[in-house]
Each structure stands twice: as structure tokens, then as C-alpha cells.
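Mods, move this if it's the wrong board.
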Amino acid sequence: MTKEIRRNVNSGYVFIAILAVAQIVTGYGVFNALKSFNFGMLLFWALMAIITLVCWFGLFMVNPNEGKVLQIFGKYAGTAREPGLRWANPFYAKKAVSLRIRNFESGKLKVNDSNGSPIEIAAVVVWKVIDTAEAVFEVDDFEEFVTIQSEAALRNLATSYPYEAHDDEQIGLRSDPKQIAASLRVEIQERLDKAGVEVIEARISHLAYAQEIASAMLRRQQASAIIAARKQIVEGAVGMVNMALHELKSQGVVQLDEERKAAMVSNLLVVLCSEENAQPVLNTGSLYS
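Not the wrong board. C-alpha cells:
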């Protein structure tokens, strides 16, 4: 693989002064040669003037957060990164590569999660070029390469996890955004290493069930929420009943046989778990009437 080589090129401001003086000198030499009809000197000064003119094409500008990839006759000669006006061999081909941080949002991809449910997913990827040689020479178009490989990594990630985790040990696309973002960044980085690109951040920007199953999954989520709430209510009610029986027994308020305990438990559970307010019934007779 072609790795980046930092190339320290000359200051363009110094060469402007040098070339300006050389241009004046060669012009004066041509003028004197024509004046004296010395064709040998005329040829010499004309050649010097042409060389000086060609050297002007060696001036180029390097913008902040930009690299200029230098090539000569198809061979990589290095990358100039120091900003400002620079001068290098005028026969160098110079290709500008931006080193600024960039980002893009993928389109909404329709894929199946690990459970086979169709979902829509999109991601935002923040990246920058860190090796200009790899970006230019190892891939055909590094910007298009980043886009396509990022979407491919997003598809692969979506098929590896369920939309929503059903237990605490499982990682879900919706329930664990930080872990999913970290996994997505690692997977994209593995694909873009060969292009000289560093992935700074990658995160899910859109996540939803596909339209054809969205209504069914909404009902499923509602049912799961109801079941979870009921489970918590029942657990709390059982704890309260247990506490009530323990307090009645420890304080000697009343002695209940197993049948009466069962009736009391049943009544308390109905009161605590019911969605409607309980209507009390007062018993004015004997304890067992």
C-alpha cells in the first residue's frame, strides 16, 4: 500500500522574488543580444527566459487543513501539508485533498434485523482523511468509497442485532444506542482503513419498523408494556399482602386459619391489583358469619 510521505517544499514568496529578478535579468540579456546582433547570446538568454517562465508554474497554494499530493510522471513524490504559498518542481502534478472533518447521512435502508423483522435504519457518519496517499491511490474515489462502505457496514450491523432487546443481557438497536454506535464506528473503520480515512463518530439517526409491520409491532410493544406494568403491580401487591399478614400475626391483632388467610389474600389482591377503586363492604356480624 502507498503510504503518505510528508514533503517539505520551498516558500513561494521567496521564489516570487527570485523569479522576478531572474525574469528581469533574462529580459535584459535578450534585449542586449538583439541590440548587438549576437545570436549565440540571444539563444542563451532566450532559453533562460523560457526556463524562468516555466518555473513560475511551480507556484501553488496550500489551504489550511488541505494536502497537495505531488506526482511526477506517474510516481508519487510526497504530500505538501504546510499552508501558504509554496513552490515545487513545475513538472509536479498537484492534486488537492481536503483534510477537514466531513459528515454525511446515509439514506434510509430497509433491512431485516436478527429476528427477521423488516426495519428502516439510517446513520450519520463523521470522518476525515488522515493519509492522502492512500485516499488518492488505493481507491478510485474515496468519497464514494466512504459512502458505499458505510452503508454496507450499517446493513451488516442491523442484521446482527434485534430491533429491541427482550432481556437484560441482549443488546438491541433501540435499547442500547451507545453500544450500537460504538460497534457501528468500529465496523465502518475496519472497512475504511485501506482508504486512509478515520471515522470520528457514527451513530443511528433513524430507526423504525417497516411500514408493513409497524402497526402490528406497535400493538406488540403496547402489550409488552402492559404485561410489564401488571407484573410490577402484582409483585408489589404480593409484598404488601405478605407484610400485612406478618404484621397481624406479630402484633397479635387477630388469629386467622388457613381458609380465612386465603380469603384475606384474595380480597387484598383484588383491591391492590384492580384498575377500579374498590367498594368496601362492612361486616357487622360475627367474625365468621
